[in-house]
Amino acid sequence: MSAYLISIHISDGFKVIADNDDDVKSYRIIARPTAENQGKYALEVGPPLTEWFDNYFGINYYDMADGIRNDQLASPFWASGATENWGLVTYRELRLLYDENETNALDKMYIGTITAHELAHKWFGNYITCRWWDNVWINEGFASYFEYFGMHGIDEKLELEDQFNIMYLQSALSVDATSGTRALRHTVNSPTQVTGHFSGISYSKGASLLLMLKHLVTEDTFKKALNLFLLDRAYEHAFPEDLYRAFDNATIQDNIQIDGLDITSFMDTWVDKPGYPLLTVNVNMNTGLMTLTQERFYINANAQQTDELWPIPLTFTSGNNPDWNNLTVSRVMTGKSIEIQKEPGHEWVIFNVKQKGIYRVNYDVHNWEIIASALNNDVNNIDKMNRAQIVDDVFALMRSEKITFNLGFQVLQFLKQDTSYYSWYPAISGLNWIRNRFLHMPLNLAEFDNILYDYLEAVIKEVGYDVVENEPLTRTLNRLFLLSFACNIGHAGCIADAEQKFRALIDNDTPVNPNLRRHVFCVGLREGNFEDWTYIYERRNTSNNQADELAMLRALGCSTNENAVQEYLRMITTDEVKAQDRLNAIIWLLAGDPKNAAAFLNYLKTADNVEKIRKAVVLPASFNSVLSSLPAYLDTDGLKEMEEWLTTSQAIVPEFNVGLNAISSARVNQQWGTDKATDILEAVRGGASFLIPTISLLFFTTVAMILK
């Protein structure tokens, strides 16, 4: 057994709050006795997940050791989400305990996915484990993949197979797009480097590699390879080469041949090479010849391009006969360029069907224009998963200057009609990224936000301001994220409804649905007074559910009342806020309202308060995060003030360089906003004209009609 997997729990009064009463395949939920009614959902998902993994891997958990337990324990003070010890998984409370009156749908979903993640670790992490931390992705990549696909296996209504794309795959594309990123496997020689390995690369890119691999070799062969890998390295450590060998054997046994692909070479490249490719597609509409080229994608337009190449599994479909269900890889692109012949015709082409591969796609201008036209005619012309891909790719391509803002927002016009969660989740992220670079320009920001209200009209009308009983989870999540965004940018309808619900809570004790509290509480406190803040503060102190506590802690940071902000700062430096939540609490204060960053800087400039914050967040890395996060929320004068303070306070802030580097980055971001504001506003403002076909589109349409 790996030493880090040993856990001994000592408690005062903890008890079993839910039990499957099975002596042979025991599954128990353990927590403080005052939470005894909050273990039902965790018990509902745990045993079926264990059985699903038994069947999928072909190895039974309860046969791994005599009398092995499968206990899940909720700790009020656990720092991480959960930890996969043998026989006992320890969770932060909000990741295991569910109260239907207090826990929102997102936190409930996370109870399921994190349970699946930790149970998957029983095979990948416990039954076998990586030899050293340089390959921690073998543990975390598999667990992250199966947190979505394992939970999907027992509850398809959650749509987790699809949610994986926007939650994990697109996250991998985001974190792996800089010149400073690292490979899945890289050298680890210090505790700091170990901690760095537990990051988005190991989790999200590792999981995304497995998704791409599954669709490359088919799921049956994927399952066989995992079974061979587990049996070969049972109760031992494993290297990536052991995994490659298992896939090589499985593909040989199943006679899987894909474009002359060597599976070991394929996996080795993706594991040992940082970054990922951008696939650029040029389509000759007259001949049907498609010319594809690849290069490494960098989010920074000024990054030095390299000559790296990846083996890229290719799938595509086209407008005249779209097929969104054929995910079979037909070609693997291994060189710099490749040509593929399709039927001639004036039609859009989309590569990476349902986005199962780790790469972005750019097209020639005309193909983008046809895609934009198709989406504006009917968003359902293109599958929801590829609409999600298009939204995420377009924002990234605009940032990296691979396409113009005019072209990008021409494509994104379809968001005014699209009400899909899968389109709007990446859209909110992309729009917020731009907004954050306009914060120092209030007039530009106000104009940008005013234009965005038109984008939001249809989707807010669709999801509404109230939760509908028995609605799909993705509709609930769409509303949760959308209304938080809408209220933050000043959407009048969102703010009015939130204020009404908040006043009903304060004045008449009318409960607010847990799935609406994030924006309702924030708006209520942002617009309210100190008495309103005190009401939520006291409500939080009497809460018996950690998810509910954190929802209110987030909201308490939204107040701009001077007394409330000072009381909030006092609170987060004491035991009133759990140590694992204090860094988040500071970030929530900074994000809660633009005025709060200046208040926090003023607080931090006192030597005693620096030490209070340092002790409160506990870890040196967390204090560094405080210094590196603050500049992003400051205006031009605030950056100058922080810079002067750090420069003259190096004795009390030895980490001053962390803050100075963040100030430099913030200034670069502000300058980007200043330089691009005119182009962006012009592009977004000119949306109506985008619906008129371009000259080239008219020409090709005319030719097509003549030929017909």
Automatic annotation (TrEMBL):
One GO term (biological process): peptide catabolic process
Active-site residues, Swiss-Prot/TrEMBL: E118
Positions of Zn(2+) binding: H117, H121, E140
InterPro entries, sorted: ERAP1-like_C_dom (IPR024571), M1_APN-typ (IPR034016), Peptidase_M1 (IPR001930), Peptidase_M1_aminopeptidases (IPR050344), Peptidase_M1_dom (IPR014782), Peptidase_M4/M1_CTD_sf (IPR027268)
Location of the ERAP1-like C-terminal domain: 348-649
Membrane topology: Lipid-anchor; GPI-anchor
Family, similarity comment: Belongs to the peptidase M1 family.
SUPFAM superfamilies: Metalloproteases ('zincins'), catalytic domain
Domain Peptidase M1 membrane alanine aminopeptidase: residue ranges: 41-270
Protein name: Aminopeptidase
Cofactor: Zn(2+)
Note on how the cofactor is bound: Binds 1 zinc ion per subunit.
A Pfam family assignment: ERAP1_C
Record keywords: Aminopeptidase, Cell membrane, Glycoprotein, GPI-anchor, Hydrolase, Lipoprotein, Membrane, Metal-binding, Metalloprotease, Protease, Signal, Transmembrane, Transmembrane helix, Zinc
GO CC terms: cytoplasm; extracellular space; plasma membrane; side of membrane
Localization per Swiss-Prot or TrEMBL: Cell membrane
Chief localisation class: membrane
The keyword Mitochondrion appears for this protein: no
Transmembrane segments: 688-707
Coiled coil: none
GO MF terms held by the record: metalloaminopeptidase activity; peptide binding; zinc ion binding
Cross-referenced Gene3D superfamilies: 1.25.50.20, 2.60.40.1910, Neutral Protease Domain 2
